[in-house]
Design a protein that fits this description.
Number of domains: 1
Oligomer: single chain
CATH class: Alpha Beta
Number of helices: 6
Shape: globular
CATH topology: Rossmann fold
Helix content: 25-40%
CATH architecture: 3-Layer(aba) Sandwich
CATH superfamily: HAD superfamily/HAD-like
Radius of gyration: 19 Å
């Protein structure tokens, strides 16, 4: 009982601070296999082959700076939410890839099997669900449509360019091709300052 009002005491618990991070093109460098799903690339077979794309992704390297950023944010106390448009049927392969590359995470969210909606709609639903219990403070993604979703939701976004380098590291910093990007540790330190 609250001594002043005679009513029950209510304690508001803060939502945990979370970063959401994409897999394909963000954590996982899929440039060598993207031709299986992108009709604009040389080597496209005429039909999008997500089965081949995802099964071959196990051998793709990591974008090391993204993995480092996620690790540092985890050490700093951020909850890590992996948010991918991969179908749930690829969960074993995805979690295996994350483990092999030392990517920490607290939650992982997939597209439902046979959900053919756009990645933006899938991730919009995931965002709505995550936002109920987490304070989404940062997003890391490569898909321009999904980046637009994060930014329209007022979530600071680190954008990964098509070549795997940061297009933006910070709120509005653009990098020219070949320009060196800031140290990830420095970014985390600056980003967390009030």
């Amino acid at each position: 009982m609250n001594e002043l009002s005679g009513g029950p005491v209510q304690i508001a618990l803060a939502k945990p601070r979370m970063v959401v991070c994409d897999v394909d093109g963000t954590l996982c460098d899929v440039r060598t296999i993207r031709h299986h799903v992108d009709p604009l690339l040389e080597g496209f077979s005429g039909k999008r082959d997500f089965g081949r794309f995802h099964s071959q992704s196990i051998d793709c390297p990591a974008n090391a700076w993204v993995v480092e950023l996620v690790r540092l944010l985890s050490v700093e106390g951020w909850a890590i939410g992996i948010v991918t448009a991969r179908e749930e049927r690829w969960s074993f392969l995805t979690t295996l890839w994350l483990a092999e590359h030392g990517v920490p995470y607290d939650q992982i969210h997939f597209r439902r099997n046979r959900d053919n909606r756009s990645g933006v709609l899938v991730k919009s639903d995931i965002l709505a669900s995550l936002s109920r219990t987490n304070a989404i403070g940062l997003a890391i993604d490569d898909n321009p449509g999904v980046v637009g979703l994060w930014q329209s939701s007022a979530i600071p976004t680190v954008v990964v360019s098509a070549d795997g380098t940061p297009a933006k590291l910070g709120l509005c910093h653009h990098f020219a091709p070949g320009q060196e990007f800031p140290d990830v540790r420095e970014f985390v330190r600056r980003f967390q300052m009030p």
